[in-house]
Write a structure and sequence with these properties.
Elements lengths: L6 H14 L5 E2 L10 E2 L6 H9 L4 H7 L5 H16 L9
Antiparallel strand pairs: 1-2
């Protein structure tokens, strides 16, 4: 990583996430939360929202836990996560 820069990997991710996918509620800022994608700059990582859904929380429970979130934020977080997974190959065990 260059001094003062966030490195090639962050720029590659930013290009994939910000340029290739036009999301209005997702922000990626290298100076906030280590550059992980967040909801509208709120310091609520997309991974947190997706994880809450994976844990079985309802939309109402998530909105109660994070009052700054809006229902559209949750939906876009899921869309973003789906696109992010499509962008890379994942190793799957043969079943």
């Amino acid at each position: 990583m260059r001094p003062g820069g966030m490195g090639v990997e962050w720029r590659r991710r930013r290009t994939i996430w910000a340029d290739a996918m036009k999301f209005t509620r997702i922000t990626v800022n290298p100076r906030q939360m280590g550059g992980v994608p967040c909801v509208r700059g709120l310091r609520i990582p997309i991974a947190t929202v997706v994880g809450m859904i994976a844990d079985g929380m309802t939309e109402a429970q998530i909105l109660k836990a994070y009052p700054d979130l809006e229902p559209a934020d949750i939906h876009e977080a899921l869309q973003f996560a789906a696109e992010a997974v499509r962008e890379r190959e994942l190793p799957l065990a043969a079943g």
